[in-house]
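Q: We require from you a single protein entry containing the residue sequence and its fold in token form, and nothing else.
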Amino acid sequence: MSQHEGEVAAHAQAETHRYTVAFPAHPAREDDPHYRDFEHYRKTHIDTAVCHVAERRGGDTSECAGGLELHHAHVEFSMQNGVDLALLERDYPGISNPDEVGAWVESADNLVFYCAKHHRGHGGVHNASASDFEAEVYVRNLIT
């Protein structure tokens, strides 16, 4: 495709995002009474699971790498004690009870499978900016 007048040519650009996250106090993962729910969900669904990026691409796993890993999609385990329940309740009605947040964090409503690359890799959900990670679903080989 030829470049149009005023169009910026394709290019690679290094991006750096650096900030501090204020994690609320939280139990060690192995002390979490709901961890068994997480493990049960993982074991029950791993055999039929597909990386969520591949799933959104119609099952195309060509850019996936590594085994499947279970990701907390909306609220990370380590963030559950800092959640503003009124805000969470707007998107997930019925979760305003502070005694039930831990169970919800480990439930299907908050869990999604990613391959290791799309989970913890340099372009994965834990490392890329939210906008870049979302764009990566639609732009092949966006993050290298």
